[in-house]
Amino acid sequence: MKIDCHCHVFDNDCIPAVGLLQSRFGIVVESRLPEAGGADAGDGGKPFPDSLTGRFSLDFHSLLGSLTDPAEKDSVRYLASHPRDFVRFILAGMKSTADIAADMMGKARDIDIWVPLMMDTERGYEGAPSPVGFDAQKLAMMDLTARGKGRIMPFYAYDPRSRSVDAVRNAIEKEGFVGVKLYPPLGFRPSGNDDPAVEANLEDLYDYCTAGKGPPVPITAHCSWSDGVYSNRAVPGVSRYKEYYRDMAHPFQWENVLARHRDLKVNLAHFGGAGEWERRALADPPAGAEKNWADAILRLMGDYEHVYTDLSFHGILAAEYGEAYGQALREAVRGVEDRVLLGSDWYMSAIQGGLADYWRNFAAALPDLFADLTGKNAIRFLQSPAAAIHFPAFLASQNGIDSSFVDLFC
Ligand SMILES: [Zn+2]
């Protein structure tokens, strides 16, 4: 039994292109969204004069990072040097959700179960709305889940600025979702937000996930410094938007949460990011402390028995430095290897290569760990009342169940 613990099937219409361009590359069409509320963690820098012409401007620091940092695997620099991969990525997202899923399942024939993670960009790219809203994305996900009969186990995206925990409860108990996805760089921290309502919504989430008698409901949280997207909202007193939003995903943001909710089952996804692990595989001089996220994740995994990580979006490392990457990883996770997961991050990872190659390269780079990463580790991570009780009930009310898959989690 092999499980892809981290993939995506939302299509391009779920992600606003203008917001993405602004956040990822610092290329601002019209103007960066003004921030309501104060800057609670200003970087001390002077506000950068965003508007050069009124309609088009550059966020200098974000663009410079995107052009110069070779560790970023989805930067302008990377895309310019990998045009064919970029085209593969764009074409993958132009399909419908159903077709993205069918294509993904067809290309990874060895995989039995997929865990697609939703993305809620409504507050992150406010003012640059996507053609397809969050509710429509959710309905498409539910339809796909029903048709999967147990082979599609989706995570519900939660933005604590938009919704209360009631939305999570509904998603888990009635709509076929088996876990929760958090994407902090879209503008909130796992804890320590200024807005008490946001804090309360997050506390309610952590309470809900750990409340039942069975294992906790799993959460997957984006946790990478070198890849990903960010809110396009300006913040008074902040000029380095990328760093500002990126740090919302930093593993240290989880320390207070875990101290209060020791049983929380959380996957700090990407293991700090592909850039981090490229440096480790190549034994480059140690990164500056501010970029060393993997050690912080490992420390949390040591302190808390339900903290996991995943290797999603590391495909290019398995492809290019397979042996060295496998060696560096194996040494780092010794003692906590039963909480490492593997996800393709398809179709984000289409930027790095093809899907069949992704799995082949990982099987070669981690021959001793591959079966556990995609097997028992993933099963343990997904096991909770959500997967054991509510998910089968949802399937039974829809298109039926293939119990050879669903029974794994009961
Ligand atoms: Zn992802």
Structure write-up:
The chain is of the alpha/beta class. The chain has one domain (3-41, 55-409): TIM Barrel, CATH 3.20.20. Helix content is 43%, strand content 10%. The chain has helices spanning 17-25, 60-68, 76-81, 83-93, 97-107, 134-148, 165-174, 196-211, 241-246, 255-260, 274-281, 293-303, 315-320, 322-332, 355-365, 370-374, 376-382, 385-397, 403-406, and strands at 3-7, 27-29, 56-58, 113-116, 155-157, 179-182, 219-224, 266-272, 307-310, 340-341. The strands form 3 sheets. A 6-stranded parallel β-sheet has the order 5-6-7-8-9-10, with helices on both faces. α8 (196-211) links the parallel β6 (179-182) and β7. α11 crosses α14 and α14 packs across α15 (355-365). The protein is globular and about 50 Å long. The protein starts with a strand and ends with a helix.
Supply database-style keywords:
alpha/beta; TIM Barrel; two-stranded parallel ribbon; binds zinc ion
